[in-house]
């Protein structure tokens, strides 16, 4: 954190926090007019622990959870729910540098209770649940989907 340039920090915060603020501002009026809805924002388990290598990223993802909770309080009286999905390490192109190495493979096989990295398909069920009436009493939550790696967060 001490060496990150202001420009890089600002870019991370704009990408991960401000863009979600704008998204919610754009969609919430239509949801209010419709009498309700569900907004899901992607955070990360990186929000729950400090990191010497990805500190600004983790800070931005914790800020996303704060954003979600504040919007949940504001939009709840209008029937709009706002929740965060917090993935663990997922095998995506964006995160390739984090999983495409022997250390990550060993971590997945030895430390993650489900003994594997996440796949994009692992998030469809929680997204469908959060969009469905089945979750109608759930708002302002940060739902971790991480193979058990952050079960105490």
Protein model, in words:
The chain has 5 helices and 3 strands, in the order αβαβαααβ. The chain is of the alpha/beta class and 153 residues long. The protein has a 3-stranded parallel β-sheet with strand order 1-2-3, sandwiched between helices. The chain is globular, with a radius of gyration of 16 Å. The model has no long low-confidence stretch (mean pLDDT 92).
Query: Ranges with pLDDT <50 over ≥5 residues?
Result: none
Radius of gyration over C-alpha positions, nearest whole angstrom: 16 Å
Q: Please report which band the strand proportion falls in: under 5%, 5-15%, 15-25%, 25-35%, 35-45% or over 45%.
A: 5-15%
Secondary-structure element series: HEHEHHHE
Major sheet details: 3 strands, parallel
| Structural class designation | alpha/beta
Q: How many angstroms separate the termini?
A: 22 Å
Integer average pLDDT: 92
Helix proportion: 40-55%
């Amino acid at each position: 954190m001490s060496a990150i340039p202001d420009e890089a920090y600002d870019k991370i915060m704009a990408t991960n926090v401000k863009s979600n603020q704008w998204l919610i501002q754009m969609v919430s009026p239509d949801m209010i007019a419709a009498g309700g809805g569900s907004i899901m924002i992607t955070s990360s388990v990186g929000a729950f622990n400090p990191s010497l290598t990805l500190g600004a990223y983790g800070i931005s993802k914790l800020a996303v959870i704060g954003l979600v909770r504040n919007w949940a309080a504001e939009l709840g009286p209008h029937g709009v729910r706002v929740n965060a999905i917090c993935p663990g390490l997922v095998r995506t192109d964006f995160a390739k540098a984090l999983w495409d190495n022997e250390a990550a493979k060993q971590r997945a096989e030895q430390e993650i209770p489900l003994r594997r990295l996440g796949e994009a398909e692992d998030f469809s069920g929680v997204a469908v649940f959060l969009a469905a009436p089945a979750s109608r009493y759930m708002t302002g939550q940060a739902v971790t989907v991480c193979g058990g790696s952050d079960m105490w967060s």
